[in-house]
Amino acid sequence: MNSFLEGQIALVTGGTKGIGKAIADKLGDGGAQIIVTARTEPTENPNGYYFIAADLAQPESANIVAKEILDKYGKIDIIVNNAGGNLGPGGGFSTLSDEHWNNELQLNLMSAVRINKALLPTMIEQQSGVIINISTYVAQQPIWDITMTYSVAKAALNAYSKALANEVGSKGIRVNTVSPGAVRTQLMQDFIENLAKSSNTTVDEAFKLVMSKIGDIPLGRMATPEEIANLVRFLASPEAQYITGSNYLVDGGVSSAI
């Protein structure tokens, strides 16, 4: 599969670290030309990916990113909407303001909606394209006192992804969703540390709390970013050309639903 994406232009939002970086690396290994976005340029870029600084929670950013991509490359073949995060405080409904809800929706839903809207006309014109939206398993199993805003925003992303797949499938464009469970990333570590501070506990106690909320993982561990990226690479490949409108849980078996 070393050259199965040769000549393809791929955008990975939030692509400089964690799951996003692993996805960029896997698609790059497949021969794609990689574009990554993040709010801050990484200090190291060993693979030479084309970088665009963007805060995709800001409404104007998507059009700026799309224009730069199309001016430089003239097309886009793969979009991976990975930018996102659990921004809201814990504690349930009473702790959450309108601003918390709006911030979560802007980053976890509207960033993908806007990027897709800005780049889909090019995909429609070329009658081909792949969009993969990165969601989370807690969109289906929300943890009320930790992930309420995040779960709701990603659940909306799931519904949007299915609707978009139905709309653009006849135009040669596939849209799928990947929903990771617990993944061992710096973002997860930062989340646990912030939870420890807000709850006045130790990092170890906060980690145990998160894992108790998640439940027992049948495989006995968190995923690695590369394990999420392996599925994204497959979904972007010609081998997945009949797959669209699907949502794939990658959670080590922790979800109680099928």
UniProtKB/TrEMBL annotation:
InterPro entries associated with the record: NAD(P)-bd_dom_sf, SDR, SDR_fam
A Pfam short name: adh_short_C2
UniProt-listed Gene3D superfamilies: NAD(P)-binding Rossmann-like Domain (3.40.50.720)
Domain of life: Bacteria
Record-stated family: Belongs to the short-chain dehydrogenases/reductases (SDR) family.
Protein name stated in the entry: SDR family oxidoreductase
Taxonomic source organism: Olivibacter oleidegradans
